[in-house]
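User: Some background: our group keeps a shared notebook of sequences we're curious about, and every so often someone picks one and asks for a predicted structure to add to the entry. Today it's my turn. The entry only has the sequence so far, pasted here. Could you supply the structure so I can complete it?
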Amino acid sequence: MSGASVLIQDAFAALVKSYAGRPAEDLYSMLIRQGFGAVAARGEPDEESGTLEDLFAIAKTSGQYAVGVPILEANIAALAGTASTPTSHSTVAVVESPKPGDTTAAPPSAISLTNVPWSAVVESVIVLVDSRGPESRGSAGADRTMVATLRAADASVSEFLDIAGDRRADVSFNHSSIKVTPQYPLRDSGASLADVYSLGRSWALIGAAGSVLRLGVAYAQARKQFGRAIGTFQAVQQELAQLAGAVEQATAMCQEAAALSAQGRPMGLAALAAQICAKETAATAVRVGHQIHGAMGITAEYELQRFTLRLMAGREHYGSEVSAMSLLGASVLHEFSDDVWSVVAGDTEGPR
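Assistant: Of course. Here's the predicted structure to add to the notebook entry:
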């Protein structure tokens, strides 16, 4: 991670900690005002701007501190160039195109979205329509996303709290003219908006899983049983080692996808693989975290549940790892149809 990314990450963490115990709306407004809602957005040609590395650092930190505000979504909206001002409040939803590969179809006159973060309190909802099928996720030039910008005032909103207590809503738009524009790979990057959003969510899961590991190690060192710390028992050490390995594996997968993007190469397949790995790591973190902590881990007073509940919610956002596995498998079969075994065995480059 670059020095600039570390500084941005530290500043973000300090601001989040300073707002501990205050309403989430106050934190969100302050983060937007301080520019954390557009860290990677391009300004004027002669202005300095952040990078996707900065954005992913913030996504990971938001998971580490169980930040329940849509700061990743605000950044995606800024990258899409849809925010009317740097302090605009926007959220994001992702849908699959009914006709994968078709970027010319007329937009529908009505859109129904489910499980959209904070859509009841923001100014606009940015809908990323992923128009790629399995045959084009790994192809150069195919990483494109259709973007529909919808005014929240035009929506019918049914708000609810997810399992982590974060604001979500089912949203319906009835609009005679929904504007949809194509978004090609981001400048200086091989990434589409849909892939960046997917990878950002994966980083957030890794951040939360890392916090579960930190709590588990500390608790295993402090909790005494049979006259010794439970962390000295091999069975407990094995569980913690398994979680540590899962976190490192998911981190490596996300870093690989981010590196492809930085090189200007398509990262569709790598982002999909990272998503699968991050969601599997989330499942491991929930299991190990609660096994180590026992009854203490489910109490409202102890902070473990702040992370495990968000990990459970994050696993279900935009499909399970099983559906992602099916898509990745179909994509790899199409992309590497001549030599699938070499890809699976690691004898050639893939997935890319």
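Suggested note for the entry: The first strand starts at residue 90 and ends at 96. Residues 227 and 233 are 12 Å apart (CA to CA).
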